[in-house]
Amino acid sequence: KMAAAAAGSLRRAGWRLWRGRAGVRCQLSPPQRPLQASAVLRRVSDEQKKEPLASSSQQQFDSHPTDHQPEQEPQGPRPSYTGQGGQESEDYESEEQLQHRILTAALEFVPEHGWTAEAIAEGAKTLGLSVAAAGMFHSDGSELILHFVSQCNTKLSELLEQEQKLVQLGEAEKKPTDQFLRDAVEARLRMLIPYIEKWPQALSILLLPHNIPSSLNLLTSMIDDIWHYAGDQSTDFNWYTRRAVLTGIYNTTELVMMQDSSPDFEETWRFLENRVADAMNIGNTANQVQSTGEAVVQGLMGAAVTVSSAETSRAVR
Amino acid sequence: MEVAAALAPAVRRSLGQCRPLSCGAGLRGRWPLPPAFAGGVSLRLCSTRVALEDINKPVIDRIIRVDHAGEYGANRIYAGQMAVLGRSSVGPIIQQMWNQEKDHLKKFNELMVAYRVRPTVLLPFWNVAGFVLGAGSALLGKKGAMACTVAVEESISDHYNSQIRTLMEEDPDKYKELLQVIKQFRDDEREHHDIGLEHDAEAAPAYSVLKTAIQLGCKAAIFLSERI
């Protein structure tokens, strides 16, 4: 009877994951096999924990090894399967959040195993899940890297937001733009330090064609965030110029950091300082060029007027 | 596709919330004027607090981007017309309409900053194209300039109307301020259109051809500015 219930719940669970999956807005196109795999590994992990198969399949399915829905009661009948909307969205959250948790746990093993499926498998193990969990992800470790980058960007945004709050409350001085950009880029790059050995590998994976849309997206939104908190309010072509310049600064500094062996990456921060100073100078130079150009034009106009009036007066005579 | 960028807010979001993800970075508040960089534009403080996580960002993005481009283009068109007809009898009228467009542009600049919308990359192009259109139509005479005004303003007010419809379908309450702005501007553009008609736009040389051509150009501009 338990086996029948198990089989039935697995069938239904697989289908519900399917439905939930259909509603998921683009995960990074995982193959379909892992859907069942994740259902299977949940059952495996539940069996490992010797949780009794309850009469209702839903709660079996919804309860995780580390239950993040503490209000849920382990016993008692849950709403029937026909209450689909709420059930499905819970599953939708669980699926994505399960992946987040696995990837976050996997980061610990990156310095040792690199950005690979091994690291993900190790991460899954620490959560008490089966090693097969790594099957949920691409074998080249793309999702792990993108997850890490996304996490770093979020941390940076929070950091910048807190700084902004302090300035608004008057508890901190507003930094000049070049200082702000330097500090923001440095803060973001410092998040790479624990993984610096394996970061070149990550960069090359991020440049793979199928990863470029996502990695470009993450990069542009990070740069936009930095400028936003730096106080950029441009609504003309400057919007693009500034972001392009900062992207260049960030990327080159990142590359320098890969090669840097100085204590606490001093060389990198000095490089960064010089690049930001250059960028500031470009701005000033552009202004200077423009005003010089205007002065030249006015000079020429004046000369033309003088010559033409000289001609006219000569003609009159 | 904002897959990976969408992961970030998902991580931040609390449990049990299953809402469309946006790529805004939290609530916006007042912020002081930025120090100059490359001759940056200094603007008035934007005092509207916009919760970027509630709104349908892609739709609002497009709306604000294309409207900003439109007002920018209209500014340049009137600038072109003034360059040619500034000293004629219609000069003051064009100047007045131009001033209103300047106000519109200023408002959209503010909205663009508040909603963190990227401007269209074609702005330099609209800069030149608008001026050329304005000057070119003015060289056809005062009636030509008025015909251009009529064509452009008709396009713009139709376009604003469809935006109003979109926003009403989405959620009239959430977008109340934006709706108000667009409605006001639509009425202003309508007024310009009527002024153009009053000043014998229809008597312009090749009026229907001119009007169709300009409106086709406006449609193309709107299509491109929404996306690029």
TrEMBL record, chain A:
Limits of the Ubiquinone biosynthesis protein COQ9 HTH domain: 95-125
Keywords: Lipid-binding, Mitochondrion, Transit peptide, Ubiquinone biosynthesis
Pathway note: Cofactor biosynthesis; ubiquinone biosynthesis
Bias type Polar residues, positions: 54-63
Region (Disordered): 26-97
GO biological process: ubiquinone biosynthetic process
Compositionally biased residues, Basic and acidic residues: 43-52
GO terms assigned for molecular function: lipid binding
Subunit text: Homodimer. Heterodimer; two heterodimers of COQ7:COQ9 come together on the same side of the lipid pseudo-bilayer and form a curved tetramer with a hydrophobic surface suitable for membrane interaction. These two tetramers assemble into a soluble octamer with a pseudo-bilayer of lipids captured within. Interacts with COQ7; this interaction allows ubiquinone (CoQ) isoprene intermediates presentation to COQ7 and facilitates the COQ7-mediated hydroxylase step.
Family matches, as PANTHER family: UBIQUINONE BIOSYNTHESIS PROTEIN COQ9, MITOCHONDRIAL
Protein name from the UniProt record: Ubiquinone biosynthesis protein
Organism: Calonectris borealis (Cory's shearwater)
Gene expressing this chain: Coq9
